[in-house]
Structures are given as structure tokens and as C-alpha cells.
Amino acid sequence: MRFVATPAIYERVPSITGCFLEFSMGVVRDPSSSRGGMLRFLNDSQGCAFWYLYMTPSGDHCILASDQWLDGGDDEQSALDPQQYFWCAQSLEHFLYRFWLEDEIWTRVKRKQPLSPEQQQYLADAIAARHRLPAPSQRIDGSHPTSC
To answer: Distance between CA 140 and CA 148 in Å, rounded?
Structure first.
């Protein structure tokens, strides 16, 4: 809550693609047995991608990404396709750090500036992991465990 309620904080996480904070009007219920729900919080400026905070009743959470825009209306529950949502990060903090770091990397590359050792390591890790798919336990498709 502090992140979204404090412009001085969230303005420190730039978006080279014009992504913006906007919350869904309600929580989208998870159709699986976990009884969790998703709250849309970040939107791509062209409507190509949306990020959701997925929360369970036990307090676990993670970040999901999709190309589906949902606002939490009751009529959307039946149209929800869990196969269209992908695990993106283990926590909001982890997601925001990666989002910021990737923006910083892009900016430095574009300006032909050297990358920091941390940025170089992040790219090396991303390249090494690019062929791995999420494990079934990381998918929100009705067969996942109740925690993220």
C-alpha cells in the first residue's frame, strides 16, 4: 500500500514503454481450488500486457502476467482462462526490482553506457534461463498448490 500511495516511491520505478499503475475495480477470483484472487495493478500503455497481484487467503502472493485485461466484474469470472496467466515473480518487491533493473539496462544500452556488474550478471542469468519453462507448480491453472 505504501508503494502505490506514495508517488515519491513509485515514480522511482520508470517505464520506458509507458506502463502505468491502475488497479482493477475488484478482485478477480481464481477458479481453481485455492480460493485466491487477482488484482490488476500495472498496465502496458498499448494494452499488450497486464500484471496482477495474485493473493491467497493465507497471505501468500506472487505476480502474474497476461495479455487479458480484467477489471474484477462478476461477468468476467466465467471468461477467466487460467492458461492465459503466467507466473512472473515470487513477490511484488521482486517484480518491482526486476522491472526497474530491466528499465535501467535498456536505458544504458540505448545510451551506449557500460552496464554495472549487477546488470551484467542479471543479463547473463536471463540468457542462461531463457529456455526453461515454468514448473507446473508455478502455473495458475487449477493444479497448482495453494501458495505461490
So the answer is: 9
148 closest CA partner among 95, 75, 72: 95
Burial of 146 (0-12, 13-18, 19+ CB in 10 A): middle
The residue count of the chain comes to 148
Residue 144 is placed in which grid cell? 497448482
CA 101 to chain CA mean position, Å: 14
Q: Treating both helix axes as pointing N-terminal to C-terminal, what angle do 92-110 and 117-129 enclose, rounded to 10 degrees?
A: 110
Contact yes or no for 146/56 (Cβ under 8 A): yes
Give the three cell numbers for residue 74: 462478476
**What is the rounded distance in angstroms from the CA atom of residue 11 to the CA atom of residue 83?**
32
pTM of the model: 0.76
| DSSP secondary structure string for all residues of 49-90 | -EEEEEE-TTS-EEEEEES------GGGGGG--GGG-EEEES
Per-residue pLDDT tens over the stretch 82-103: 778 888 899 988 999 999 999 9
- Which residues have a Cβ under 8 Å from the Cβ of 84 and sit 6 or more positions away? 66, 67, 68
For the chain, the structural domain boundaries read 2-91
